[in-house]
């Protein structure tokens, strides 16, 4: 008995074209409150978001005057970690500063 090899034809081969989608991105946002000192907000922005003094001050002023400010845009895991770190740090220092995230 001989084995015959059959080459696939275009009709028998289904090409799966899987496009790789980039991961969803999330904005990390600081919300304004009436009690957290501005210098503490700047400290948080420098410590957790690696902003220089000028950029941290700009974001802090956006938080102060507009009610919220975007600290950065990250993948979900990184955004969740930063939100948690900032909220824990604020509570540790007895400030009501609130950090949240929303889909970008």
TrEMBL record:
Keywords, comma-separated and alphabetical: Hydrolase, Protease
Highest taxon, organism lineage: Bacteria
GO terms of biological process kind: protein catabolic process; proteolysis
Gene Ontology MF terms: peptidase activity
Domain spans labelled Adaptor protein ClpS core: 22-100
A Pfam family of this chain: ClpS
Subunit structure: Binds to the N-terminal domain of the chaperone ClpA.
Functional note: Involved in the modulation of the specificity of the ClpAP-mediated ATP-dependent protein degradation.
Family listed: Belongs to the ClpS family.
Protein name, UniProt field: ATP-dependent Clp protease adapter protein ClpS
Organism whose genome encodes this protein: Tolumonas osonensis
């Amino acid at each position: 008995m001989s084995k015959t090899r059959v080459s696939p034809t275009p009709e028998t081969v289904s090409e799966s074209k899987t496009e790789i989608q980039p991961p969803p991105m999330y904005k990390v946002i600081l919300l304004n409150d009436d009690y957290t000192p501005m210098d503490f907000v700047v400290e948080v922005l420098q410590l957790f978001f690696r902003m220089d003094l000028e950029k941290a001050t700009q974001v802090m002023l956006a938080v102060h005057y507009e009610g919220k400010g975007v600290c950065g845009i990250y993948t979900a895991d990184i955004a969740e970690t930063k939100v948690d770190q900032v909220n824990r740090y604020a509570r540790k220092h007895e400030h009501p500063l609130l950090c949240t995230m929303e889909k970008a």
